[in-house]
Design brief:
By secondary structure, this protein is mostly helical. Helix content is about 75%, strand content about 0%.
Length: about 120
């Protein structure tokens, strides 16, 4: 039974990924600190934060959907930043591709939540 945003599997998974990304950015060069590092950190944190905020506003379907849509946008955005980290040689292909795959799953789960929000 869902009693809190913390009970949502998509929240749990996106939070876990945010931790992984925020630890991994320290492997990026110092000159990327204000650019790629910042973008990766913000996008990764945006997903679970918007799920939590949307859940709190779920009495308004419009507000709930707005926050879930923002979370999907952040999931798409972080795929680009991860791809850049990979293609610039900062992260290994395997590590980056695993993250991208996991964020794609997050995006699909968020889409399902949008479509089936009344049943959760």
């Amino acid at each position: 039974m869902i009693q809190s945003f913390r009970d949502l599997q998509v929240y749990q998974e996106s939070y876990e990924l945010a931790i992984i990304v925020n630890k991994a950015v320290f492997k990026l060069p110092q000159y990327e600190k204000l650019d790629l590092v910042s973008q990766l950190r913000r996008a990764s944190k945006s997903i679970p934060a918007n799920i939590a905020e949307g859940y709190a506003k779920r009495v308004s379907i419009k507000e709930f959907m707005k926050h879930l849509t923002i979370a999907i946008g952040s999931a798409n955005e972080i795929e680009v930043h991860i791809s850049l980290a990979r293609d610039l040689g900062f992260w290994s292909k395997d590590f980056a591709d695993d993250l991208i795959n996991r964020y794609q799953i997050i995006g699909r789960k968020l889409n399902k939540l949008i479509q089936n929000w009344k049943t959760f």
